[in-house]
Model the fold of this input.
Amino acid sequence: WKADAAQASYRRLGNLALLTAQENAAIGNGSFESKKPVYARSDLKLTKDIARSQGWRLEEIENRQRHMAGLALKAWPAR
Done:
């Protein structure tokens, strides 16, 4: 990652994962590879799916964000 891409992406919805407070504190700002086992153990499908990624760069974040937007439209359809 380039520093500017990381800075622009870190708060995007596609880059966020639901974790317990304990899990979040344990993984902190570690590398993606060090976080993957925590994601893989999640009971939440959207979090578990992150662990299937080979890497975690802007492309993966954008793809995940598009996927989540599609799910949001199904959950809350526009009238």
